[in-house]
Amino acid sequence: MLIAMKKATLFALKEDRDAILLALQKDGNIMLISEGDKTQTLEGADKVGDQIAKAKDALKFVDLHGKKDSMFASRLPVSYDSFLHESKEGSDLADQIEALSGKIMSLRNEASTMTSQVDALQPWTDLDIPLEQLAPTDTSVYFAGYLPELEKEAFLEDIKELAAEPIVLKEAPEGRAMLIFCLKEDAARLKHFLKAHDFTDVVFPKRTGLVSEIAVDLTEAARVKNLRADELEAEAKKIAESKAELQLYYDQLTAKEERLANGGVETEKTFYMEGWVRNDRTVQVERAIRSVTDAYQIEFNDPAEGEIPPTEMENNSFVKPYESVIELYSRPQAGSIDPDFLMAPFHFIFFGMMLSDAGYGLVLTIGLLIAMKLVKPQGFAGKLGMVILFGSISTIIWGALFGGWFGLELHPLLFVPMKEPLKMLALCFGLGVLHLVCGMLLKAYMLIRDGDVFGAFCDEISWLIMFAGFFCMAFVPGPVGKYLALAGAAIIVLTGGRDKKGIPARLMGGLLSLYNISGYMSDLLSYSRIFALGLATGVIAMVINTIAQMLMEAGPVGTAVAVLVLLGGHLFNIVINVLGAFVHSSRLQYIEFFGKFYEAGGKAFVPLAIRTKYMNVTK
Amino acid sequence: MITLGTALAFAGAAVAAGFAGVGSAVGVGIAGQAGAGVVSEDPDKFGNVLVLQALPGTQGIYGLLIAFIIVLNLGVIDGNVKDLTTFQGMALFCAGLPMAIGGLMSGIYQGKVAASGIYLCAKRPEETGKGIILAAMVETYAVLSLLISFIMVNGVKL
């Protein structure tokens, strides 16, 4: 059900503000409202933002160089008191890692620049002229660059008539490296030939010595830099072992950021804050503040006209996991209804019918129990896991009823859907009718609760009367059914257009309302997907078994492959069909069921609380 | 001996599996291209992306299902292929058609919706659920095709 919210208004002294925020965060029951520009973010909020970014980068670096966390890493417990004291060690670690990673990156960059320079110089290593001497003289000039290999012969022919001296060096991807000297007077003609043969100029780096020596020096320097970077990385690996401190630091910083985000509206000595508190938690909130100071004033009021409080749902532990299904769609609007208690059993049943293989249900149940014991997921993921766990139990039940065990047909307690499709369809449509009727009854309840009894009668009860009429027509002999159906239809036609003015418009409205029957028909047909999905699981399992059987007839090698096929195939089938069963069970709730009564658009209730990514804070 | 009827029944199984498979392949492929783009920017989203990419894959499975049931009813698995009359064969061919055509088109379009869902998840990772629901809406038509194909195949008594 939806919990009523109260709006809290708090006045207190600024000198107590930090302690009050800390106490409220520990209590975790109030969602602070921001007043837009008037709200003061507390001092240090920007700094914390930067610190968090630094810690995040440090954690990423540590993950890169340290041991990978196993998939099932659980959260480390830490006491609340230790959580309060900001980890100096964590802060130091973050600084150290920032410096280290910066150094490593610059070293690697320098080394790679040097290596690429060496590569560029490779074709010129045979040059026996030291670079500092390579310059024009009084009478001659030189050109250095690359000539495409194909042009070389033609080019050498062309320049024979000039007083030019080509020095042909190694080949490179850009072409043949060449150095050409010529007399100043011939420079223009040489340039013409160079252009004609696609010569590209090259500029040498400003270094002294032979190219070969320079290359050796650069390679050595790059090697030294890389070695140093390796040393630093080894250091980083050692630091990575203190990952836990860094994670603690990160969690502390995020909690601090949340605390500093909203300081309320302030004056010189006092501040004022508003927040939403659950109806049943107002005592705790006041106690948290009183533990800090008695110089405060707090008031709890119902939300004013037009104010929309956030939505929080409360359910017993069987229904609670199904809140995740609602959260995936959209929370109910404040003041409407939380349909979880009805939705949960239907979701449970539909999931089981769609997966419908008891063997898969067993595997899934055992697998999930082990996984959840190891990982202990919290919050949304935890609820989702429980939904699938319940679903897998449902699968065992329906699998036993339909006689599906890993694709084999064994002892169906009810009937086999594949052999009697019409019976199965009848079951699906029957459940569908039940589902839709529940939705309509819920809408009628909501209307009556809001005082619109006449509306409930005309819009919902009338349809129920008509459906009861159809039901009787099919199963109960005599004219009872016909009269009921006609009565229901009459009410719909006469009252469907009651918001309109004038008899013809009202009748038109009524007839149009009656036309909604097509909507109900398509909703009902939608439930046939339960049969289709259950069928899909069963037949694919059968296919896998058949293939394995065929392989087994091929001797021992075939048997070995068959075992692989069985394991892999059934696992694949489970994964695909769990996804399908969840998505379609949920979809039936969202579209067919919720379509009858649901008011979406609720805001999430996110109180100021300690929310950690890595640690598990125990109070 | 393979009669014309048996051959037509084989054709029905072939189109059901083949076209529905094409639909899924194209759909999953389109979604996968979108997914690769998103993961290249943010590798952490891979899990969400994979779930969305898998959604259009069901049409191929449904097509295989129908083909398998036709083939099973023909006796191919045990090795004794039945002789069908021409009309029985035509009936089975027509029974495979809804899954073939429905699976083909719904698979392709579900893939496009899944790709858009992947872009949605890139901008707002917390709303991935809504992207999944949007893609699942298209699946309704694949399910309806599966259903009617199954009922029709079941109705041909061999």
Automatic annotation (TrEMBL), chain B:
Its main location: membrane. The keyword Membrane applies. InterPro entries: ATPase_proteolipid_c-like_dom (IPR002379), F/V-ATP_Csub_sf (IPR035921). It is a multi-pass membrane protein. Keywords: Ion transport, Membrane, Transmembrane, Transmembrane helix, Transport. Residues 12-70, 93-152 form the V-ATPase proteolipid subunit C-like domain. GO terms for cellular component: proton-transporting two-sector ATPase complex, proton-transporting domain. It is found in: Membrane. The keyword Ion transport applies. GO terms for molecular function: proton transmembrane transporter activity. The chain crosses the membrane at residues 60-77, 89-111, 131-153. It holds the Pfam family ATP-synt_C. SUPFAM superfamilies: F1F0 ATP synthase subunit C (SSF81333). Belongs to the V-ATPase proteolipid subunit family. PANTHER family: V-TYPE PROTON ATPASE PROTEOLIPID SUBUNIT. This is V/A-type H+-transporting ATPase subunit K. It comes from Succiniclasticum ruminis DSM 9236.
